[in-house]
Structure formats: C-alpha cells, structure tokens
Known about the structure:
Elements: H1 3-20, H2 23-33, H3 44-53, H4 62-75, H5 79-95, H6 101-105, H7 115-131, H8 133-144, H9 149-157
Helix pairs in contact: 3-5, 5-7, 7-8, 7-9, 8-9
Amino acid sequence: MNLTGHRDYHDEVVRALIAIGNPELGEAIRKDRGSQLEHLGIRFPGLRKRVKQGFSFYDLPEEQVLEIWDALWRSSPYGDVLFAALEYYAPIVRKRISPSLWPVVKGWSGRVDNWCHSDILSGLYSRVLERYPDEVYPHIQAWNAAEEEWLRRISMVSLVHY
C-alpha cells in the first residue's frame, strides 16, 4: 500500500476521533502523561465505541488492516490514533492471534512515551507472549535490560494478564 493510502486512512481516523474529542481534555491528558504526542481528549468508552463502529479499511484482508494500523502507529502525531490501534486489537488477541501480528507490533514499543500507551500495549503483548512464548520472551528479556524506561516497564507489565 502506498503512502497516500495510509495518509487517507490516517485522515479518516483522525476526523472520526476529533468529532468525539475534547481539545481541553486532550491537552490536560497530554500534560498529565508527559506525552510528546498530541491528544484529542477522548475518553476510553467513546474511543472503544468508535473503533468498533469501524473504518473504511476494516473490509480489507487482515494483513492489510495490520499494515494500515502499523503505518498509523508509526506516523501519527496523535496519541489517540495509537490508542485506536490498541483498541482494535485488544478484543482480537483475546480470541486468536495471527502469527503475523508479533513481527509487526513488537516494533510499536519504540513509540511509547507514556504509561497509558505502555500498559495497554503490554496487555496486547501479554496475550501474544502466552501464544508465542519462544518468539516473544527473548524480546521481553532484552527490553528488561534496556536503558529506555518505557521498554523496561513494558517488559514487566507484559508478564501480567489484566
């Protein structure tokens, strides 16, 4: 998929999230979490509901949906877009985990800059760890020894289902 397509999907997601956001709350959230990302001020129940309603790319094959969420995760300046990706995958990983998921989402740890993204991503990682321990656990161990505080936190929280 080309960059223009990803940009269009990003714009679609951002428009939907702005429609349910509160800019003042977003700024308060950003400051509270010490995040470098912009936050649109969306409470989680509203975010979950909007993610469940779907986006135009949900009709694409699973691998393309993952490619889109990955591109959005890696490029969006909005923390809420990252939360949307996590909310999309949270119910999926409770039921089944595609072998293609881990090679993509393991890279998401590098974008974490606050406890909330860290802990929700760790919840996803804990499910993948349960299913694919031989592939995931070496990364958890490496992150535990990392200089980066968020990788160390992810390494610990990923060991707990919650």
